[in-house]
Design goal:
Rossmann fold, alpha/beta, homodimer
Chain lengths: 414, 414
Amino acid sequence: MEMEFVTGLACVFCGGVYPARYSTCPRCGIQGILDVQYDYAAVRRRLTRRTLARRRDLSQWRYRELLPIRAASAVPDLAVGWTPLTAAPTLARHIGIGSLWLKDDGRNASGSLKDRASAIGVVKAREARRRIIACASTGNAASSCAGMAASMGLRSVIFVPERAPEPKITQLLVFGATVLRVRGSYEDAFQLCQRACAKWGWYNRNSGINPYLVEGKKTVGLEIGEQLGWKPPDWVAVSVGDGCTIAGVWKAFREMKQLGLIARTSRLLGVQAEGAAPVTACWQTGEPLRPLEPHTVADSIAVGVPRNWKKAVIAIQESGGSMLNVSDCEILDAMRDTGRLAGVFAEPAAATAVAGLRRAVTEGTVGRRATAVALVTGNGLKDIQSAKSAVGDPFDIPPDGAGLDEILCQSALC
Amino acid sequence: MEMEFVTGLACVFCGGVYPARYSTCPRCGIQGILDVQYDYAAVRRRLTRRTLARRRDLSQWRYRELLPIRAASAVPDLAVGWTPLTAAPTLARHIGIGSLWLKDDGRNASGSLKDRASAIGVVKAREARRRIIACASTGNAASSCAGMAASMGLRSVIFVPERAPEPKITQLLVFGATVLRVRGSYEDAFQLCQRACAKWGWYNRNSGINPYLVEGKKTVGLEIGEQLGWKPPDWVAVSVGDGCTIAGVWKAFREMKQLGLIARTSRLLGVQAEGAAPVTACWQTGEPLRPLEPHTVADSIAVGVPRNWKKAVIAIQESGGSMLNVSDCEILDAMRDTGRLAGVFAEPAAATAVAGLRRAVTEGTVGRRATAVALVTGNGLKDIQSAKSAVGDPFDIPPDGAGLDEILCQSALC
């Protein structure tokens, strides 16, 4: 049985449309990222404001007609998506804009937005009758892949580079993944994973060569639309690493418009870390990607060779949006602000979106009466080390409380 | 304006009922834990299966009539409650029971069930026109207090003992808390906090002397009822530290029965860690509490002097349930099983409920066809160190992949 509403896969480079059985463009090769196409006229008859309001499935699967999975396919038991859209009035005042909401994807099962993509991955693996799914990563992609595989009764094999932090390896092992630590770089781990998938016939979750995963990420945009009563904000701020999250968000807005769910789309604010900003360079110069060695505290967006840079640039352009970079210092500031003013603990890459919004207001790109959503792509609990560098130390006092009054007065608490 | 449905506070020890302005029983003193009483006849007219099905508020505030807050009081912007109830069929088979769901409270804003209580705390603090809320703890109570305070625009002051782990202090600082590290024990920190609250007029979140907080915890039980279509499972497994979570769960079941929402209540399985099991001792012997020095990997339930032991014992008895202890080894096993078979990363105290369920099946207390819910009270990301001791090490391989085939065959992956 086929995917009911999928009509084909279009190459982002050559524009050719191919049947839904390729991973990358058969003409352009590995460069040719494919984009899933749907029969929107048919989807439109099924997916309306009214039918959605009646759906009780509060997960990304409520948008099933816009996802590249078969109608009868089983989905993981783990809840994925429909994360809170939290109003953050104090943070909005601090940044200097009219209204701000945080879309808190750190509430997903493994603590990041990547669960949306991995959930599609495990469904596709099952459809392809594979029992093992593999990926190369130390980060959110890996843990979400392992967690979703566990929920779906699949085995997972994760290749990690030597420098992978132990807490992240621990999370993978808890999810029952077979973790292979490669004494080498990320590239070594990636190549080994590709070869092993080819040799053993495992399902390959590496998103660069899998056109379906990004469709899962798209659902975060659909949810923003629906949770705001189909009145999108002026801006949606998204941190950019590989580029496929912001491309997914834009696809969601295009689709909502095409389906008549929203009247106007939001502008996208793409934000990169200064030390890992190859996509911003493309956006500014209009030239093709120049790979670089990334250096930033925001490890989840420390991508030197983003595979989806073109999709990202097109998304920002089409939305009438903008793109800018922020320093690590601004990222850590934003992490603290998001915690103390909204009660949301964001990982550095997630705080990057908030930092970018703040800078865009200062620079005048985003107006002072604007409404905005910032995408919180990952939970701060996943990277306590970075948070530590942002917040400093507690006060030390003796058990008799000597000196307490002075500390309280200093802190404006007395 | 008063709390619409609250009729008074009943002392768990002497049974006396007092107006809703005390913290502990005016006759019994600090021992006299108070329990909030409601006008259930009036609540029954408002809270029915039908009215609840129509409510769009997917948070603990959907049960507002059963919470001790004023009708007009503002609640935090942070979403609290209505966490996923995740089916775990593979884990159920592994344990040997008919059906198992995990109530994943690790998805709350600060990563634990304590958010439910702290959310009530900050609402009450605002009702009392306090601008500062304080608590003594290193754990989930502290981080939830700081996070909810941030969301509500309140300041928070947290007293932590010297041995508090740095990651937990970091989380507090991110939420903007003023953190006072006391060079002494938890008891020292607690006493300093009590004195400071009295001196400076701060709102006191220490749950032992605050009858309102546990009402927030109760909502997890109400959600289990509603999410299962008002058909409660045979058993609900809850780890026990202080005792107030399991008491809250039982109160939810009593109330749902009294309101006609459910026909029968679940049995409660109370589970303690072997090295911190004073409540199990009370349950087994019928004698009053004997304080002890707790030793267990499950730090969130490492309580030697539980203040709510009596409420917990009564809850388990009234439910027709049972109580047992599990070893740290069983807890770590359960943590691994919950991760690899259900994709849920539980902190040790949360995995304790799953470990207890497994043991109860082995011992014959819980039948092999039984249906059960295990309460996942906290997110495993909050305590990576314990997880590390549960899972061992990854496989090391060279960049050329030599030895990979052997590893895969060992792992039954080839």
